[in-house]
Amino acid sequence: MRVLTWLERQPRTPMLGITLLLMLVLGWVDFLSGFEIAFSVFYFLPVGGAAYFVGLRPGVAVACASTITWMLADVVGGHTYSSEWVAVWNTLARLISFLVLAGLMAALRRGYDDQTELADSDPLTGARNRRPFLEFVELEASRTRRFGRAFTVVHFDLDGFKAINDTLGHGEGDAVLRAVVKITQRDLREIDMVARLGGDEFAIMLPETDAEAARRTVSKLQQSLTGEMHAHGWPVSFSMGVLTCEAPLSSSEAVMRRVDALTYTAKTAGKGTAVFDIVTAPAARSTGAASAG
User: Fold this and answer.
1) Is residue 1 classed as helix, strand or coil in its secondary structure?
2) Which residues have C-beta within 8 Å of that of residue 211, sequence separation ≥ 6?
3) 34 near 77, Cβ under 8 Å?
4) 185 and 115 part of one domain
5) pLDDT for 98-148, tens place per residue?
6) Percent of the chain at pLDDT above 90?
7) Residue 99: exposed, middle, or buried by beta-carbon count in 10 A (0-12, 13-18, 19+)?
8) Are residues 250 and 148 in the same domain?
9) What's the CA gap between 239 and 289, in Å, rounded?
10) In the chain, which end has fewer C-beta atoms inside a 10 angstrom radius, N or C?
């Protein structure tokens, strides 16, 4: 399972090259083994691999190339037929079987990707959930260790959200949550990620974002979210903890504990407050928290 997961994460071009190389190796072995030994079933490996790991079109291309490779190995190996139509029929039969396999493997991968996307996303808002968010934090932490580029994590919840559910109903509360994610995604870059961690608790990952850029982003986001709440008459504000990591903490969970504590500080300081902190060393020393209303 780990090998399959690792293969799924590899870039498509190298994976296509691997399947083509495997096809050529199989063709050579097919030639050496002679036409009396049925060998075409082994071409399912490069065909299925290309379709699953790279895509349907590459899978079709490898299916066609595998058919040609098998045919050449068969002909060069000295196989003769009673009629040329027998050779044509065998070639078409193998091509069709390869194409069917490519289609099935590509459909299997699409189904797997769809299920993974559903599992990694919040069904109400469309935001990511905790697991892929923590994985993203771990990825950026490793980039920070290697390249020294800062990243920022924002954690926030909705002040007054319980009153919305209690007085206006859960349907209105759901509308508030969807609006929060919509506005947040609109104001973020494509490389950023917003996640719903549960209830009215959210987190944002800002790769390659230092403290100054984080302040600008959070200020803009606060204004956009507050404006949206006022436009709908929702008495909701946002308490935010903002942690910029110039050097990573020990784990993604450590990052989340640290930024969650900043959010708690923000809530005690007053609703609608953002509290900022910077991690400057692997030992988790920081420059100290700074508050901004």
Assistant:
1) coil
2) 150, 152, 244, 276, 278
3) yes
4) no
5) 999 999 999 988 887 777 666 678 889 989 998 899 999 999 998 888 888
6) 55
7) middle
8) yes
9) 14
10) N
